[in-house]
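Good morning N.,

You mentioned wanting to compare the apo and holo forms, so I went ahead and generated the holo version with nicotinamide-adenine-dinucleotide. This is what I fed in:
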Amino acid sequence: MITAAIIGCGRIVAEGHAYAFQALKDRVQVIAVADPVPERRALIGEMLGVPEEAWYADYRDLLSRETPDFVDLALPHFLHEEVTIACAQAGRHILSEKPLATSLDSADRILEAVDKAGVYLGIMHNYRYLPHNVRALELIAEGRIGDPFFVRNEGLGGGHYRGASEYDPHWRAKGERSGGGALLDNGYHNIYMAEALMGSPVKSVYAHVGTYVQKQDVDDLAVVLLEHENGGVSSIQVSWAVRGGGQWVSEVHGTAGSLRFANGRLELFENGRGEWLPQDAGGFDHRSSFVTLFSEFITALEQGHPPRLDGRAARHNLAIVIAAYESSRCKRPVALSELGE
Ligand SMILES: NC(=O)c1ccc[n+]([C@@H]2O[C@H](COP(=O)([O-])OP(=O)(O)OC[C@H]3O[C@@H](n4cnc5c(N)ncnc54)[C@H](O)[C@@H]3O)[C@@H](O)[C@H]2O)c1
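and this is what came out, ligand included:
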């Protein structure tokens, strides 16, 4: 049995990670939790049957007294570097919520600490395992749409995801706590999915990122163009500022056909005709994406190899986000090679 501890018992742990731990209870046991807010550590501790003496207010006490195989980190972004490095120095494997950090210097310090400690680091790129994305990737691998050349992804909404009410539900809208807005928080997922659907890494980034409606010091609109190594292009638009009419768009277009995800279903266009695939061919199931990712991470620990979605993947995706902010600031395309990728 693999053992785990959770640091940060907020909303995504209650709504996603805890579900995964419960689904995988034959393979993983949560032995400790940490959160400075008593209600949060009690909520998650009780949900997962963690004995009360292992509910910690200070994560440093958890790390000095407990020896879990890995630590699951789900914290406001400004704490990611400090806590991830402390976990590595305590000799624990780590599964970190995205983003790994809020700057590339910070990400590099984490990767250095992880390498030095010889522990594994996994990153929560869970949209990769949303059932509709899994099915779309299978269809692309079967050649059903030919060679992808255009990925289009939009998530236009009117606000940010609220954090747990007992802590600071609006930390995402505060730059010193989040490090970035709609792009870092939401567009982040669209970026690694664009690379996966295109089957090709991003080479350069051109973007406009701004703040239009919310009274905050982070972005609430990002319009991003990604140029891929294969010559294909991805268009990503995310917002917290759109008051109405905004849509969820997820499309990939190839030389022989197209795929889109709409109304909870995938539609495949081939030979000039569109066909809605059955619901069981993949819907939007956020919770199941965590089960698959946690399962894959636990398998890596059981078998003694690094996870597939690792610290390098985390740095790479963060570099694309940072390139988009930089492109918007200096009004030119930014090559990933400029950022050490
Ligand atoms: N992968 C996804 O689909 C997804 C979805 C939502 C959030 N997230 C990520 O999960 C992370 C957490 O987001 P959230 O929405 O759950 O936030 P949240 O505000 O609901 O939870 C954060 C928790 O951290 C706790 N905390 C604060 N300081 C702490 C400390 N020093 N030690 C331990 N705990 C501390 C808070 O009390 C709170 O319970 C972020 O990185 C976010 O980007 C990922």
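The mean pLDDT is 95.

Happy to go through it together on a call whenever suits you.

Best,
F.
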